[in-house]
Write a structure and sequence with these properties.
Distance between the termini: 36 Å
Bound molecules: zinc ion
Helix content: 55-70%
Strand content: 5-15%
Strand order of the largest sheet: 1-3-2
Order of helices and strands: EHEEHHHHHH
Shape: globular
Number of domains: 1
């Protein structure tokens, strides 16, 4: 994992969304500022995304992520936050971000469980 601290880069990548404090773009994690480097929960959240990205060989992860995001955007009346938190990868990362040993025991393709759960609800 290569850690970068750049508010400017994060602004470009998020189209100016200043609420985003960090982003995982394998092999990088980009933080908005130095203080956030001490936040173990955010770091664990981004580590979970790295694992997700690696197991899907990076590019398919982003395709799946953005497809799911845009489907949710259309379904939820173009509310970014609702779409973002409903993406399966984010649900796993938010659900497990405070379990610091989670990645030691995580099953392969664990995000699929979150995807299936959501599918069953609809
Ligand atoms: Zn996330």
């Amino acid at each position: 994992m290569i850690i970068l601290v750049s508010s400017g880069l994060l602004n470009v990548l998020t189209l100016g969304n200043k609420k985003v404090s960090a982003m995982a773009l394998w092999p990088f994690v980009i933080f908005r500022n130095q203080e956030l480097l001490n936040d173990k929960v955010i770091l664990n959240h981004e580590r979970i995304h790295h694992r997700q990205q690696l197991e899907l060989l990076i590019i398919p992860y982003y395709i799946w992520y953005f497809l799911e995001y845009w489907i949710k955007m259309f379904k939820n009346g173009f509310r970014h936050f609702d779409a973002y938190v409903s993406v399966s990868f984010e649900q796993e990362a938010f659900d497990k971000q405070s379990e610091f040993s989670y990645l030691n025991n995580r099953q392969w393709l664990a995000s699929w469980t979150y995807f299936k759960k959501k599918f069953k609800k609809q």
